Amino acid sequence: MSQLEDLLAGWIPRQRWFAGKGTPIEKVMVEAEHPVVTGEPGLRLLVVEVGQQGSTSRYQVLLGVRRAGHLRDELAHATIGVCELPGDSSTWAVYDAAHDPELTTSLLEGIADERGADGIRFRRMPGAPIRTGQRSIVLTGEQSNTSLVYGEDYVLKTFRRLWPGRNPDLELTAALAGSPFVARPHGWIETDLPSDRPGDGSSVPTTLALLQDYLRSATDGWVLAATSVRDLYDTPDLPPGDAGGDFAGEAERLGSATAAVHRALSRELPTDVLTPDMLGDLAAGMRHRLESATAEIPELSRYAPALRAAYDAFAAVAEPLPVQRIHGDYHLGQVVRTDAGWVLLDFEGEPAVPVRDRRRPSSPLRDVAGMLRSFDYAAHYQLIGSASEETLAPAARAWARHNRDAFCAGYAAAGGVDPEKHQAVLRAFEYDKAVYEVMYEARNRPSWLRIPLDSIAELTR
Ligand SMILES: Nc1ncnc2c1ncn2[C@@H]1O[C@H](COP(=O)(O)OP(=O)(O)O)[C@@H](O)[C@H]1O
Ligand SMILES: O=P(O)(O)O[C@H]1O[C@H](CO)[C@@H](O[C@H]2O[C@H](CO)[C@@H](O)[C@H](O)[C@H]2O)[C@H](O)[C@H]1O
């Protein structure tokens, strides 16, 4: 490995967006290097292959380059290390350029001017010109990717884990452009990666970043829900609808917004109806996920029979199951409340799944199940490690039930299928999501592992 690859091998596992935590890195290889700003300071977009346990995954690194000793103190936290770069005998400080507004400004300019050079293309969508010259800051918080906010106008989400193909976030947001339920897209950055379709030797356009309106008046759905839960904890004997800060009105409006987005997606993008064989394949995928999760988290095995029975019931559903493009990783952190109503963000789907699988149509009830799981998380996460856990647990359950009912009512009233009338389908999707969460928490937030495990215990009781 080159000096840079050695440094990346030490730095990548410490990044929040690295999906392969817990498994040693065997190899790091810079597969492609696209200079965006040459000279000093310099910006290169790297496609990096990370090898672990015999398989490789790709990540995007925004590499900032300054002469050794020239890195300003405020960028010290973004340091990757000091090394020689191929073809150059000087010593360079390399760092995460997402934190350097002097460099990131060129990404916004690139989109505004529709630049294209050295294997990357900057694309702009039709519409008002892009206001350039704004400094960016990195959005803080739990993120699978890295988002840069430019002034008060734009968010540029740089995708970290890369899979060949157009990212569904771009594809779906573009299909919904103009809808009041999504942040307007303005452009994107892409490169070409070798297709991962077996036997296909071609290269496919692959999204590196997506530029959208920044919704500055927005409040995160997760924060709003958590505030409501806290209010209920103050008066745990009251029914959630009578406590201050009741969330049911918002949950119902969120259900309506979700149904409206699903309707729009089914108008704009392909739909299908699943045959019994296809249902069987979906159920097989759920069983497979359960097996992988059980191998990693043996505690799950005691619930496996009940989960498998739910997947069998799903596979045996007699009525045809309509499928379409959906959000794919729907939860309260993916929706924000603006002055005008709920807006849905992050149509990327599950970042750990190949893009070509994420693009397959699925049942909109999968999104409904995702949001219902999120109500469960919001109700319980503040009890982790709390001395009042036992006293407050009934209130938490009541909050989740109350808001679940409101969300489903809003969803059905706005023209979505009535979730309550499709219990076998909804239950299987909820279980499948909870199993995914068990793996997600074990890898990323072990202290939260109890949340999905407890709900699987509760749901399968
Ligand atoms: N257009 C936007 N306007 C305002 N806030 C946003 C916008 N896009 C994202 N955010 C905030 O950033 C968080 C993470 O964004 P998201 O697209 O979900 O990234 P990731 O895919 O990395 O999880 C969201 O939960 C939201 O709070
Ligand atoms: O980074 P993404 O938003 O694409 O999604 C991943 O991270 C989420 C956590 O940040 C994770 O969501 C899980 O935790 C949420 C609370 O933090 C909760 O509301 C969700 O219901 C729960 O699934 C998501 O699963 C993961 O893909």
Describe the overall structure.
The chain is α+β, with helices and mostly antiparallel strands and 461 residues long. It folds into three domains: 3-98; 102-112 and 119-213, no CATH class; 219-459, Aminoglycoside 3'-phosphotransferase, Chain: A, domain 2. 38% of the residues lie in helices and 23% in strands. The protein contains twelve helices and 18 strands. It has helices at 3-11, 101-112, 168-175, 221-234, 248-268, 276-296, 304-315, 355-358, 364-380, 389-413, 423-444, 450-459, and strands at residues 27-37, 42-52, 55-67, 79-84, 91-96, 116-117, 120-124, 136-138, 146-150, 154-158, 161-162, 185-194, 203-213, 219-220, 271-274, 321-324, 335-338, 341-344. The strands form four sheets. The protein has a seven-stranded antiparallel beta sheet. Strands 1, 2, 3, 4, 5 and 11 form a six-stranded antiparallel beta sheet that branches. Strands 14-17-18 form a three-stranded antiparallel beta sheet. The longest helix is centred in the last third of the chain and has 25 residues, at 389-413. The N and C termini lie far apart (52 Å). Bound molecules: adenosine-5'-diphosphate and the ligand O=P(O)(O)O[C@H]1O[C@H](CO)[C@@H](O[C@H]2O[C@H](CO)[C@@H](O)[C@H](O)[C@H]2O)[C@H](O)[C@H]1O. The ligand O=P(O)(O)O[C@H]1O[C@H](CO)[C@@H](O[C@H]2O[C@H](CO)[C@@H](O)[C@H](O)[C@H]2O)[C@H](O)[C@H]1O binds at residues 142-144, 222, 329, 331-334, 346, 350-351, 373-374, 377, 437, 440. Residues 251-372 form the Aminoglycoside phosphotransferase domain. This is Maltokinase. Its EC number is 2.7.1.175.
